[in-house]
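A further point concerns the way the authors explain their paired sequence and structure data. Showing the layout once, in full, would remove most of the difficulty. For illustration, here is how one protein appears when written out as sequence plus structure tokens:
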Amino acid sequence: MTRRFERLRRLPVIGYLVQHRFVQFGIVGATGTLVNVVVLYIAQEFVFRKIESPVLRLNLSLATAIFFSTANNFLLNRRWTWFDRRQHVTTSILLQFGQYSIACWLGIGLQFVLTHLFARHFHYLLANVLAIIIASVANFLVNDQWTFGRLQMLIRRWQQKRGHPPDAAE
């Protein structure tokens, strides 16, 4: 899988785009949307088909789709977007997935609040698009700093420059 990404990086236009972490994050998000829609359809039409209550069936289908798309995005971001940071991250993969999930829910909450605020001044669709953009950037920043260890990496570098062992503050 890594070889494929390396081949993409060598292509002139595509290589330029995928070298930028935020673009990679966006591409991963697009794959997550696709996974979400496919899993939602499969769950709704096949897996939970025998559940008679349409509301319960949809809720179970949505929960399943959200879980699989979140896991997809986490694993792809870990493997591709922030691959270079794996050596700096000391948290377990389960804890890291929990951090990623919390960051996603914070982004969802931010999008919800901002959409309502912006809808007072703009059409609700434009308000939602603006909120999605801002929430996506916030989600990226939280994951960049917290989930995928930029903060840990910077603290370690600072400690090493000051002559402290890396584990002194942990």
Residues 156 and 162 are 10 Å apart (CA to CA). The radius of gyration is 19 Å.
